[in-house]
Amino acid sequence: MSRREIWVDADACPRVIKEILYRAAERKGLQLTLVANQSLEVPPSRYIRTTRVGAGFDVADNHIVQQMKAGDLVITADIPLASEVIEKGGVALNPRGELYTVDNIRQRLNMRDFMETLRSSGIDTGGPASFSQADRRAFANALDRLLAKPA
Q1: N or C: which end of the chain has fewer CB within 10 A?
Q2: Please, which residues have CB within 8 angstroms of residue 128's CB and are 6 or more apart in sequence?
């Protein structure tokens, strides 16, 4: 069996999370691919690469879904992308350390759609909470647990 890879929906991924991922890729010897529609600076490494995709709605998401394999880990806050990753047999983790699963993804999609409906009707739903030190720790801990499992 080939080794799993880590894919990152990198345009909106916080820098601190990318740095945790760089260290994990080096430590575990795993391929880490950051997909974005802009150029990214990453540390020199045989394990870390970037893929620049064209601008447009879901271009990076579509690239990740097309390229990933079952068992690969995808880092994303995008719930529809997480759903596609799960459908394809991958593992989806958001930058706050929350694992998307078969059991919770439908509820997340429904809540996302509900909030979008509220916003489109003019209701201010606020945005996500600021990214915190606790979020960084939760992500690092969740990533360590996932990478400790056999591929």
Answers
A1: N
A2: none
